[in-house]
Design a protein that fits this description.
heterodimer; A: alpha/beta; Rossmann fold; Aminopeptidase; 5-stranded parallel beta sheet; 12 helices; B: mainly alpha
């Protein structure tokens, strides 16, 4: 039973960033403004936790006419802000929901305060229909979604209690990661992922279902899907990559131009719910191995370099890929590459792959 | 900081030249990004913006050196603390 929802401001309640908007301040997100009113009508409190000056909170209050029961505008961690709000309102953390567009803020709060219901803005828009928010009518779909979040919280709590390494926990939790070529039934979900993934997305732009369908049909390209499940629940299709072969590259001896097989990965994407569960590492390791097995000498991953997709760059670095500073193109993409000789990244034993 | 973001207190004693990626510490994208954020908050150095390949994350030692080279320390004792942080 949720008694208070703690909201982030930038790119959550507001459609932009308060401090970066200059004279024209961002508008309130209309769906979430509705949710604020709806929750208030049910006696559920709302609070703010934001890295902004207090004026931002006043602005949001004014825009939405909402009454915020607590406001934490400061520069520390969101988890601390939520803990302070809980204290101020005398609420237990398992009666609190937290909404933030930033995957890392959500991950940090989820890890520090596993009882808090952590939601993306999209989820928050639907959440008033879930049992935890005491709606008048609860649909089957709403019940299922709220069950998914309960599974996530249990997994997080177990991870926090577990004493060993991340990989030990993943094994202990019965993690099953399945890598397989995409089939036509996957197309809607693939398109959805390409739209929704931001921080774990190398290309930074959506791919239409029609484009995915062409890739499925093309002999030069492969679309690879990743599915993730464990003892706590099944998350289904969480990520994918596109592989394209037959690019020409320069071999190790550049004076003798030999047509060397280079495999390029124009897109890697992963749902943020797969973060911290070894999925991206497994996909990259598999891509290296599959390309090598096809006789390729080099794997290339063009990747947009922004502050939002640092987790993607970390995964690329961990898999041994490096970019030449000079390779950053005008569109902001750098080409991360590695040779496929020598030791390739290991595939965890819970991965099932072709 | 490393022990805090990974939730593993045993990492407090890890030697500076232990690789961060791979079997020893096994830093993944999530823990890695949280670590970089802490570094930015605490030392004001945005490693991700300045290091395209994130080579500075090879070991704790290389990371400390990267930060030290970019930050003005007001107190010489802080550099020592950084290396053991």
């Amino acid at each position: 039973m949720i008694k208070c929802v703690v909201w982030d401001i930038d790119n959550t309640l507001l459609t932009g960033v308060y401090l970066e908007s200059g004279a024209e301040l961002p508008a309130a997100d209309p769906r979430l403004a509705c949710v604020l009113r709806e929750l208030a009508g049910r006696g559920i409190l709302s609070a703010l936790a934001s890295r902004n000056p207090p004026a931002a909170a006043d602005y949001v209050q004014q825009l939405t006419s909402a009454d915020f029961a607590a406001v934490e505008c400061g520069w520390g961690s969101k988890a601390d802000a939520i803990a302070r709000i809980a204290g101020e309102l005398s609420l237990a953390t398992d009666t609190i929901a937290f909404v933030d567009d930033d995957m890392l803020e959500r991950a940090e709060v989820g890890a520090t305060l596993p009882d808090v219901l952590v939601l993306t803005p999209e989820e928050a828009a639907e959440a008033p229909g879930w049992p935890e928010f005491s709606p008048a009518v609860i649909t089957a779909e709403a019940r299922r979604r709220s069950q998914l979040y309960a599974e996530r919280r249990r997994r997080q709590a177990a991870a926090n209690e577990f004493g060993g390494s991340r990989d030990d926990f993943l094994r202990h939790a019965g993690t099953q990661l399945t890598i397989a070529p995409a089939v036509p039934e996957d197309l809607p979900r693939l398109h959805e992922l390409s739209v929704r993934t931001h921080q774990l997305n190398s290309a930074g732009e959506p791919v239409t279902q029609a484009d995915f369908a062409s890739l499925l049909a093309s002999p030069r390209d492969a679309v690879i899907t990743v599915r993730l499940a464990d003892d706590f629940g099944d998350d289904g299709l969480v990520g994918a990559a596109i592989m394209t072969g037959n690019g020409a590259g320069s071999g190790p001896d550049a004076r003798v131009p030999a047509p060397v097989l280079v495999v390029t990965v124009p897109l890697i994407m992963m749902s943020c719910r797969a973060l911290g569960r070894g999925a991206l590492d497994a996909l990259l390791a598999w891509l290296c191995r599959a390309a090598a097995a096809d006789g390729a000498a080099e794997l290339r991953v063009p990747c947009l370099v922004t502050e939002r997709n640092v987790p993607m760059r970390l995964a690329l670095a961990a898999a041994g890929l490096r970019a030449d500073r000079g390779s950053v193109a005008s569109d902001g993409r750098a080409i991360f590459a590695r040779l496929l000789t020598g030791e390739l990244p290991a595939l965890a034993d819970w991965v099932t792959a072709p | 900081m490393l022990a805090q973001v990974t939730g593993r207190p045993e990492l407090l004693g890890v030697p500076a030249d232990t690789p961060l990626f791979g079997a020893g510490v096994g830093l993944d994208s999530l823990a890695g990004t949280l670590l970089l954020r802490q570094v930015q908050r605490r030392y004001g150095v945005d490693v991700a913006a300045e290091d395209l390949n994130l080579d500075s994350l090879a070991t704790l030692g290389t990371l400390a050196a990267f930060i030290a080279a970019r930050r003005v320390f007001h107190d010489p004792g802080e550099l020592c603390t950084l290396q053991h942080a």
